[in-house]
């Protein structure tokens, strides 16, 4: 029932799927077999087919929403590419990609462009601070086209949380800059294939980062013992601010949603990953109760 799991997962975002999309998220690549399974699910009214799309409810408005979002994503991807190139010029940035809804081909008036940034080891917090200052000073803290909430260093590329949410984000990630670093990133996270089937990220068009001379000089100045101390100071200061700002957050939720180590910086104060996994398990419970189908639960 992997096809049903995939449909339920994307239904959390009101996003109906085509057959080839469902197949791409399945360990089995036998599309005729998957289609036969979908036909059976339709016959039992567990899912519905609207045009060429599958969804757990008969809701044509979701299809219209998806089509409009797909159209808007075309222009948004052009802007994302431009911003990714800009981000790649910042000190110690080694790779930049786009995640979130845009990476899945969807964008609307309420969407942000979510960037995933990989930095040089030991310089993550310096790189993050420069980017945050740029956003605050030059973009007036707008996150619409400049939402950078996940940093990792190239010495720690394996994603620790291995679940359907993180696997989907990795599989749909659009790498823009830092080809060689992304090659290693995908190699370190080949566990995704065990959850969502084999995938072959397209890296031919991913850029190789070239820094301006001024940035190279700044990196040379900061690639020192003093730079290491500054990185530690930026981390300590940022985490202290977050602990104060989000002091009502449970400790375990803080550690997950605002994970802050030498090699990782996450800023997800709404703890979206946990909310998605919990909502998906609720969907599984509905299927079990209404249709007597047991789906293995997901864990954060």
Automatic annotation (TrEMBL):
Keywords for the protein's UniProt record, in alphabetical order: Transferase
SUPFAM superfamilies per the UniProt record, alphabetical: Nucleotidyltransferase
Classification via InterPro entries: NT_sf (IPR043519), Polymerase_NTP_transf_dom (IPR002934)
UniProt superkingdom: Bacteria
Residue intervals of the Polymerase nucleotidyl transferase domain: 86-123
Gene Ontology molecular functions: nucleotidyltransferase activity
Coiled-coil intervals, chain numbering: none
UniProt keyword Nucleotide-binding present: no
Protein name as it appears in the record: Nucleotidyltransferase
Source organism (scientific name): Flavobacterium pallidum
